[in-house]
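User: Here's a protein and a ligand (glyoxylic acid). What would the complex look like?
Assistant: Let me lay out the input and then the predicted complex.
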Amino acid sequence: MKKVFITRDIPSIGIDLLKKKGFDVSVYKKDQPISKIELVKSVKNCDALISLLSDKIDKEIIDLMDRCKVIANYAVGFNNIDIEYAKSKGIIVTNTPDVLTDSTADLTIVLVLSCARKISESEKLVRDKKFVGWKPKLLLGMELRNKYFGILGAGRIGTEVAKRAHSFGCKIIYYSNSKNDFLETVLKAKKMSLNSILKKSDIISLHLPLNKKSKNLLSKEKLALLKPSSIFINTARGEIVDESYLIKMLKQNKIASAGFDVYQNEPNLNKEFYELKNVVLLPHIGSATMEARNNMSLLVAKNVIAILSGKQAITPV
Ligand code: GLV
Ligand code: GLV
């Protein structure tokens, strides 16, 4: 019986499918990230590993995986895995694209609207019992119509965010390696240089994978190009931005507000985040819908089944 190890209890639909197909599935059951010691023990004799974005699958771990044919990451991002090294050892790495695109795009719009309409501050005011009645100038925000919406990374998620933003009346501008015909023809979007987008955008949203090229792409110098009235949204990865400089800008009102679903060093956030009033802070829930998580569970299972039965991976990275 081929062994599949899962580093955390994921929705049962994929686990059930693996069991039905005759695999010997074991799941790390504690409700916390698996420790390195446990991971080392568990990867040694598995034929497939299902990992989370919080599991660091580096050379040391991969060297222990003598029998393993596939690492199926339960995420679209795969910056937690040394994919070059895995490939050199003949291990196929897969991810979960598409199935979480709508959920992540929806959450991006949640953050945009929350920032534009000062939702965190508004809600806090009511909860603090400070709502003393309607006021002409209470918590004035910004409409989305006719605003420049800058998308960094026009892949699947970036495109879905653009569609949603366009329906709110935003003008879409985007930064990408390649032209996105859908954005250009259907949404009348314009491709621009990174500097131009940063200077022009009223709202800027990150939809790039984290890799060597995108790491710290938004350096101090780049962030300094943002307009003081702009809203910054990150549902991609914290390491793409110079986080401490962005915090400094928010403190000094050099940008209006920011919405975060991802951070550097999750879950140990830079303490200064908690002091900021002009931010919305979410706990990395981009793909956290029943629909997305069930489909992610099915997709990791189907990738494992395909590879362990000698077939092509469905979504290799
Ligand atoms: C979440 O961040 C993912 O990469 O799926
Ligand atoms: C991820 O799914 C992307 O292409 O944006």
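Summary: The pocket of glyoxylic acid (ligand 1) is lined by residues 53, 75-77, 100, 286-287 (CB under 6 Å).
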